[in-house]
Amino acid sequence: MQERSDYLLFAKNSLITSVLSTVLGLLIAAPAAYSMAFFRTRRTRDLLMWMLSTKMMPAVGALIPVYVMAQTAGMLDSIAALTIVFTLSNLPIMVWMLYSGFKDIPPDILEAARMDGANVWSEFRYVVFPLGVGVLASTGLLCLVLSWNEAFWSLNLTSAKAGTLAVLIASYSSPEGLFWAKLSAASLLAIAPIVVFGWFSQKQLVQGLTFGAVK
Asked: Fewest beta carbons less than 10 Å away: which of 1, 27, 144, 214?
């Protein structure tokens, strides 16, 4: 199966897109959540609700604009396009989780740091980051799993060159029928890494899913 379908290529694409989109998303979401948690304005709540509402829209509603933009930019069937789409897709979840986690940090600690002369960067680096490393880790783990399991965008924006494991599995469905043995083997190989990963990181994942639920 590996010789005909090149499992390692599709697995590598899944790993690259998942890791890159998670890292890029954290780099964008962490400063945004920090700003919303500690420098609130009258529009902060509205902005958060708007970001959450984007997850309620079916992905197919944005398929044509995204496809046209990727085609115009010459980025169809590329890891770069898939990474960008995965990042934007998970960004609202990342901001919400980090925002909920950062809000639990006592404001008195930040005020003490500011009285000691800490600027915004020092405050985030030496105070918020150490205290929020747990929520950062859980957010990254959850979005890594979501990116790994994403199938809709992979099937519509990629094929053989930058396809993920979802594309590999879908390739075993043809007009002649389903290749059940190969489909089962490919599915097992696709879910095994993320199941093992989730088993070892389940504590952090549960913590991330329940941030803000209990005060």
From this structure: 214
d(CA 149, CA 154): 10
State how far the Cα of 109 lies from the Cα of 98, in Å rounded to an integer.
Answer: 18
Residue from 154, 168, 23, 155 nearest 85 by CA: 154
Q: What domains does the chain contain, in order, with CATH numbers?
A: 2-209 (1.10.3720.10)
**Hey, how many other C-beta atoms are within 10 angstroms of the C-beta on 58?**
8
What's the pLDDT tens digit per position in 57-90? 888 888 999 999 999 999 999 999 999 999 999 9
Q: Do 120 and 189 touch, CB atoms closer than 8 A?
A: no
DSSP the chain: -HHHH-HHHHHHHHHHHHHHHHHHHHHHHHHHHHHHHHS--TTHHHHHHHHHHHTTS-GGGGHHHHHHHHHHTT-TT-HHHHHHHHHHHHHHHHHHHHHHHHHTS-HHHHHHHHHTT--HHHHIIIIIHHHTHHHHHHHHHHHHHHHHH--HHHHHH--TTT--HHHHHHTTEETTEE-HHHHHHHHHHHHHHHHHHHHHTHHHHHHHHTTTT--
Q: Which two structure tokens, joined as six digits, stand for 10?
A: 């599709």
